[in-house]
Specification:
The complex is a heterodimer. Chain A is an all-alpha fold. Chain A has 26 helices and six strands. In chain A, helix 11 crosses helix 14 and helix 23 packs across helix 24. By secondary structure, chain B is an alpha/beta fold. In chain B, the strands form two sheets. A six-stranded mixed sheet of chain B has the order 6-7-8-3-9-10, with helices on both faces. A four-stranded antiparallel sheet of chain B has the order 2-1-4-5, with helices on one face. In chain B, helix 3 crosses helix 5 and helix 3 runs parallel beside helix 6. The longest helix of chain B has 20 residues. The chains are: A mainly alpha, B alpha/beta.
Chain lengths: 624, 270
C-alpha cells in the first residue's frame, strides 16, 4: 500500500492512465482508423500505428524526466517507462476484449458486477469511517440499486444490439485491425503484439531520456524529420517530382509512401546531421555572434537575397498542387497580417474579420463576373477592381467600427462577432439574392490577366498573393515604427492614459479597423479570383476563428509567427486530408496545449514573451 | 517661507460651483477654487475627500454635473480628455500608469503627442517630413530622459524600471507635452525620506526652470508645507480652507477634518 502511495508510483499511474486515455479517445473518435489510411513508411508503419506508439513513447520520456526530478535512478526510470507502456495499452485491450465474440461475456459480467462492487466500496469506506451498521447496509442497497439501473440498461442495449458499435461507432473492424497490428483474427496474438509494442515504446522513451545530450538530440532530430517527411509523403513526392527524374523518384517512393530503404537512409542522414548540429551548433552560433558588424550585415543581405530568390522560385520548386495550397496559405497570411494590425498592434479583439473578406470577395465577384449576375460583364478587370474591393472593405470596416468604438476588450469581441454573423446571414439572404445570388452565389469570375496572359494557374496566382502580403507586411512594419504605431501601442496598453496624453483614441482605433479591413478585402478579392465562384458557405464564423487562431498559434504581433501559424493551421490540414474530419478537434487541442505550454506563440514577438514570462497581465484581450 | 502671494492676479485654473455626483453621492460639492499661474499649489484632505475625483473632473475624465472650469481664461468643461491635454494640462497618477510594455523613450514619445503632426500616410511612404519629425521627437525624448535623470535607461521597458524611476518617467511623460499646468497625484507616495526630498527638489526645479504651474495631491504634510505656495483643503467634496501654508496649519476646520473635533478643540486651547 505504501508503495502505491509514493510519489513515484503516483506519477507513473497518473501518466500511464493519461496516455491510455489518449489512445482510447483517439480510437473512439475514429482518428486511429482514419490515420491508418496513410502509411508513413511503406509496408512498415502507418500514421495510425504511429499514433499508438507516440503516446507511450512521449509519456515514457516525460515520465523519466519527472521521476529523475523525484530523485529516482536509472532502473526505476526504465521500469516506469515500461509500466507506462503497459498502462497505455490496457484500456484499449479491455475494449478489444469486450468487443470480441469470445469475450463478450466479460462485458456482461462487468456490467452486472459494477453495481455490487461500487456499492461495496462505498459501504466499506463508510464502515471504516465509523458509521452504524444499519446505515451502511441501507447505503449499500441504495447504491447497488441506483448503479444497477444504469448498468442494467447498458447491458440491455448491448444485448439487443449485440455490439459495442451501437454506442461507440468507431470501435469497429478498422480500429481492431490497427490496434492488433493486423491480427484481427487471432485476438490473443493481436493483444500480445499491441501490449509488447506499447511497452517497448514506453521503454524506448525512457531510454532516450537516459542518453547523453548529443545522441539524444541527434535521435530526436532524426526521428522527427523521418516521421514528418513520411507523414507528409505525398507533399514530399510532389516537391521532388518537380526536381528529380522519374526513376529516382520511384526508388524513393511507392506511390505516395516513403520506401523502407529511403526512410532508413533519411533517418541516418538526418540523425548524423542532428548529431553534427548538437556537437558544433553552439560553436557555429557563437562564432556568428562574434563576427563584426559589417560582416554580419553582408551575411544578412546574402540571407535576405537567398530568401527572396527562394520565395520567387517557390511555385516552380513545389509544382501545381502544392502551389494551390501555397496560395491558400498566402491568402490566410494576408488576412493574418491584416487582423494583426487590429489585434496585435492596437489591441482590438476583432472577431468579425470575415466581414471584410466577404465584402472584398463579393465586390470582385459582382464587378468582374461574366455570368448572369455580373454587373459589367467583363468591362472591369481584376486589377481595376482590386482597389475598389480595398476601398469597399475599408468602408465596411469603418461602418462597423463606428458603433463599437466605445467598447473595449470582451465587449468589443462580442459585438464584432455579431457583425460577422450578420454578414454571413446577409450573404445567404433572399433580400440580396438579386445582386449576389443567395445560396447559389456568384459564378464565372474570370482570372486576372497580366500583360495579355491569363493568370489561371496557382503558380501564377501565387505571385499576386506574395506581392499583396509583402505590401501589407511593409505597411504594418512602417506603421508599427511610427507615431501611429505608438498611438496604437499606447491604446493597447492603457486607453484612458492614452487619451490623457492627447491621443484621439477614436480616430486611431478607426484607422486600425479600417486598415485591417482593407487587407481583408484584398484577401477576399484574391480568393474570389482564385476559386472563380463565390458562395455564402465560404463566409462563416470559422474564417474569423481560423485567422485569429493562426495569429495566436504563431504569436501575437509577430509577423514571422503569422506565416508559421498559417502553415501549421491552414497548410497542414490541406496536405493531410485524413486530418479534415478532425480539423477542429486538433485545432482545439493545439490551442489548449499552446495556451498551457507556450502562450506567447510559436515565434513570439519580444513584447509578448516578456509579458508571459513576467506574469504581467497581457492586455491584448483583457477587458478593462 | 512664501515670499509673495500671487493670488488674484493671474489665475491659470479656476472653477466655479464645480459639482460631481455619483448616483446620489456628491463627490465634489459646488467647489469654487483657483490656482495662481506659476504657483506650486497643493490639494489636501483626508482619504475620500474627493481629491482624485477633482483631478478627473479637470482633465475631462468625468463630466461635471454643474459649474464650470476655466483654464487660461477659456472654458474646458465639456471637452474630451484629449482636447484638454492638447490645451496644456497633463497629469500623473496615484498608482503609476505607464505604458508597461513600451520602452521608457517610447513612453515619452507618446507624451509629445499634442505637438506631433505627421500622418500615417507619411509613415507608410517614409516622407522626409515624417522622418524629420520622428527624429526630432526622439531627440526631445532623450533630452527629457536626461532631465528626469533616466539617461541610458531609454530602451528599457518601463515595467522593468525601479519604482522611483517609474515615478520620474511618468513625470517626464507628462512634461513631454510641454504643458502649462501639470497635475501630480501623490508624487512621493511609497518613497523613502531621501527619495521624497529628491522629488520635492525636482518639483521645485520644474517650476523654477521651466515655469510650469504645478498642482499636487499629497498626503505627506512635510512635503506640502515645504513646497506649496497655495493650499486648498477638501473634505467630503467641499472646500474647507484655502490659502498660505501658515494659514492652513492653524485653521481649526482643517485640524478638525484631519484629527476630529476633540483634538481640534485641544489644539486651539494650546
Amino acid at each position: 500500500m505504501n508503495l502505491l502511495r509514493s510519489q513515484t508510483s503516483k506519477s507513473i499511474l497518473v501518466l500511464g492512465a493519461l496516455s491510455g486515455a489518449f489512445i482510447l479517445f483517439t480510437g473512439a473518435v475514429g482518428m486511429i482508423a482514419a490515420f491508418h489510411e496513410r502509411e508513413v513508411v511503406d509496408r512498415f508503419i502507418s500514421l495510425g500505428q504511429l499514433l499508438l506508439l507516440i503516446a507511450p513513447f512521449v509519456t515514457g520520456y516525460y515520465a523519466a524526466g519527472k521521476l529523475r526530478a523525484l530523485g529516482e535512478d536509472a532502473p526505476v526510470l526504465l521500469g516506469g517507462g515500461m509500466a507506462i507502456g503497459l498502462m497505455t495499452a490496457i484500456p484499449s485491450v479491455i475494449l478489444l476484449l469486450f468487443n470480441s465474440d469470445e469475450f463478450r461475456f466479460l462485458l456482461d459480467l462487468t456490467l452486472r458486477l459494477i453495481p455490487f462492487v461500487a456499492a461495496s466500496i462505498v459501504a466499506w469506506r463508510m464502515y471504516r469511517a465509523g458509521n452504524e451498521t444499519q446505515a451502511v447496509i441501507g447505503i449499500w442497497l441504495l447504491v447497488a440499486v441506483l448503479v444497477g439501473i444504469v448498468s442494467f440498461s447498458f447491458a440491455l442495449i448491448f444485448e439487443i444490439k449485440g455490439d459495442l458499435r451501437s454506442v461507440l461507432v468507431n470501435i469497429n473492424r478498422d480500429w481492431v485491425e490497427v490496434v492488433t497490428f493486423d491480427n484481427r483474427k487471432d485476438l490473443a496474438r493481436g493483444i500480445g503484439t499491441f501490449a509488447l509494442i506499447s511497452v517497448a515504446a514506453g521503454f524506448a522513451g525512457s531510454i532516450l531520456f537516459l542518453m547523453p545530450a548529443v545522441p539524444r538530440r541527434a535521435l530526436i532530430y532524426g526521428l522527427g524529420v523521418t516521421v514528418l517527411i513520411g507523414a507528409f509523403g505525398e507533399t514530399a513526392r510532389l516537391i521532388l517530382q518537380e526536381n528529380v527524374d522519374r526513376d529516382t523518384l520511384r526508388e524513393i517512393f511507392r506511390r505516395d509512401t516513403l520506401r523502407q530503404n529511403a526512410a532508413l537512409a533519411l533517418f541516418i542522414i538526418s540523425t548524423v546531421a542532428g548529431c553534427l548540429w548538437a556537437m558544433f551548433g553552439r560553436q557555429a552560433r557563437e562564432s556568428f555572434s562574434n563576427i563584426n558588424v559589417s560582416q554580419r550585415r553582408s551575411l544578412n543581405i546574402i540571407g535576405l537575397a537567398v530568401f527572396v530568390v527562394f520565395m520567387l522560385a517557390l511555385p516552380w520548386l513545389i509544382g501545381r498542387t502544392l502551389s494551390d495550397v501555397a496560395v491558400t496559405i498566402g491568402i490566410f497570411v494576408l488576412m493574418g497580417l491584416g487582423l494583426n494590425i487590429a489585434i496585435g498592434l492596437a489591441g482590438l479583439l476583432d472577431l468579425g474579420y470575415l466581414t471584410n473578406y466577404a465584402v472584398g470577395a463579393y465586390i470582385l465577384a459582382v464587378l468582374t463576373s461574366i455570368g448572369p449576375l455580373g454587373l459589367f460583364k467583363g468591362t472591369f478587370s481584376f486589377w481595376m477592381v482590386i482597389p475598389l474591393a480595398l476601398l469597399a472593405a475599408m468602408f465596411a470596416g469603418f461602418l462597423f467600427a463606428v458603433p463599437v468604438l466605445r467598447m473595449r476588450g470582451d465587449y468589443l469581441a462580442i459585438a464584432t462577432l455579431g457583425f460577422g454573423e450578420i454578414i454571413g446571414k446577409l450573404a445567404i439572404s433572399d433580400w440580396l439574392k438579386p445582386i449576389i445570388g443567395g445560396a447559389q452565389g456568384v459564378q464565372a469570375i474570370p482570372k486576372p490577366i497580366f500583360l495579355g496572359a491569363e493568370l489561371k494557374n496557382p503558380e501564377q496566382l501565387y505571385y499576386i498573393v506574395l506581392v499583396a502580403s509583402l505590401v501589407c507586411l511593409f505597411v504594418s512594419i512602417r506603421l508599427n515604427n511610427s507615431r501611429t504605431g505608438r498611438q496604437w501601442m499606447a491604446i493597447r496598453e492603457d486607453e484612458d492614459v492614452a487619451t490623457a496624453m492627447g491621443i484621439d483614441t477614436a480616430r486611431a482605433k478607426l484607422l486600425a479597423f479600417t486598415l485591417s479591413a482593407a487587407t481583408g478585402g484584398v484577401a477576399g478579392a484574391i480568393f474570389a479570383a482564385k476559386v472563380g465562384t463565390v458562395f455564402p458557405n465560404s463566409f462563416t464564423v470559422f474564417v474569423s476563428i481560423n485567422v485569429l487562431s493562426l495569429i495566436i498559434v504563431g504569436g501575437i504581433a509577430s509577423n514571422p509567427g503569422i506565416v508559421v501559424g498559417a502553415i501549421v493551421l491552414i497548410g497542414m490540414p490541406e496536405l493531410l486530408r485524413e486530418f479534415s474530419d478532425f480539423r477542429f478537434l486538433l485545432y482545439g487541442a493545439l490551442l489548449i496545449l499552446m495556451m498551457i505550454k507556450r502562450p506567447q506563440g510559436l515565434i513570439p514577438s519580444k513584447i509578448v514573451t516578456h509579458e508571459v514570462r513576467t506574469g504581467v497581465k497581457p492586455k491584448l484581450v483583457g477587458a478593462e | 517661507m512664501v515670499e509673495k502671494d500671487k493670488s488674484g492676479q493671474n489665475r491659470i485654473l479656476e472653477a466655479k460651483g464645480m459639482t460631481k455626483r455619483f448616483e446620489g453621492l456628491v463627490a465634489v460639492d459646488s467647489l469654487d477654487f483657483y490656482i495662481p499661474a506659476g504657483a506650486i499649489a497643493s490639494i489636501i484632505g483626508p482619504n475620500g475627500a474627493g481629491k482624485t475625483t477633482f483631478f478627473n473632473c479637470i482633465t475631462g475624465f468625468y463630466e461635471i454635473d454643474e459649474g464650470e472650469v476655466l483654464f487660461d481664461g477659456a472654458q474646458i468643461n465639456g471637452r474630451s480628455p484629449d482636447q484638454i491635454a492638447r490645451a496644456g494640462i497633463s497629469r500623473t497618477y496615484q498608482n503609476i500608469r505607464l505604458f508597461n510594455n513600451m520602452s521608457a523613450i517610447e513612453n515619452i514619445m507618446v507624451g509629445q503627442e499634442p505637438h506631433l503632426r505627421s500622418s500615417w500616410i507619411g509613415a507608410i511612404l517614409g516622407l522626409p517630413s515624417t522622418r524629420q519629425e520622428d527624429a526630432l521627437t526622439e531627440d526631445r525624448a532623450r533630452e527629457l530622459l536626461h532631465f528626469v535623470g533616466l539617461e541610458g535607461k531609454g530602451d528599457m521597458l518601463s515595467m522593468n524600471l525601479s519604482y522611483g524611476d517609474q515615478r520620474r518617467l511618468e513625470i517626464g511623460r507628462a512634461l513631454a507635452s510641454q504643458p502649462k499646468l501639470i497635475l501630480l497625484d501623490e508624487p512621493t507616495a511609497g518613497m523613502n525620506p531621501r527619495e521624497t526630498i529628491e522629488t520635492t527638489d525636482f518639483i521645485r526645479r520644474l517650476r523654477d526652470e521651466i515655469g510650469i504651474t504645478i498642482v499636487l495631491i499629497e498626503h505627506d504634510m512635510r512635503v506640502v508645507m515645504d513646497i506649496s505656495e497655495h493650499i486648498t483643503v477638501l473634505d467630503y467634496g467641499r472646500k474647507i480652507a484655502e490659502g498660505l501654508p501658515a494659514d492652513i496649519q492653524t485653521n481649526s476646520d482643517v485640524i478638525e477634518a484631519y484629527l476630529g473635533r476633540g483634538a481640534a478643540a485641544a489644539t486651539m486651547e494650546n
